[in-house]
């Protein structure tokens, strides 16, 4: 993802190169103290194809500012009384906390699992320009 002034951060949505957007590191006094306004949500998918399509759909529908697609996750769990171990792809989704219920509904209706994992945690701190970008990218 390539950023320009007022748009996305440089590099991928989770790891900018520090040069995009003309950001000099000055936060303008903005400490992003509104803890809980943003969330990081996690969803596991059975394969890269499903994960990539779901990630694109979440961003396209503005339910997420950014989705990192992380292959090679091993999940160990019990399902219907049996111990299971599967290779999965993890989605790390940055969004507004107010959008987590809609995001969860969207995942449930577009995911192949009977009970898809959707877990969200509030973002307590972060790079203020990046957090502003997440807020600006996802409508309330």
Secondary structure layout plus pairing:
Layout: E1 38-45, H1 48-60, E2 66-79, E3 82-96, H2 100-110, E4 119-122, H3 128-137
Antiparallel strand pairs: 1-3, 1-4, 2-3
Can I get a quick summary?
With about 140 residues, the chain is α+β, with helices and mostly antiparallel strands.
Question: Your description of this structure?
Answer:
It contains three helices and four strands; from the N terminus they run E-H-E-E-H-E-H. The protein has a four-stranded antiparallel beta sheet with strand order 2-3-1-4. It has helices at residues 48-60, 100-110, 128-137; strands at residues 38-45, 66-79, 82-96, 119-122. The protein is α+β, with helices and mostly antiparallel strands and 140 residues long. Helices cover 24% and strands 29% of the residues. A hairpin with a 2-residue loop joins strand 2 (66-79) and strand 3 (82-96). The protein starts with 37 loop residues before the first strand and ends with a helix.
Question: Notable features of this structure?
Answer:
about 140 residues; alpha+beta; 4 strands; disordered N terminus
N-to-C CA distance: 23 Å
Give the neighbour order of strands across the main sheet. Answer: 2-3-1-4
Helix content: 10-25%
Number of beta strands: 4
Ranges where pLDDT stays below 50 over 5 or more residues in a row are: 1-7, 17-33
**pLDDT averaged residue by residue:** 85
What integer value in Å does the Rg equal?
A: 16 Å
Tell me the strand percentage band.
25-35%
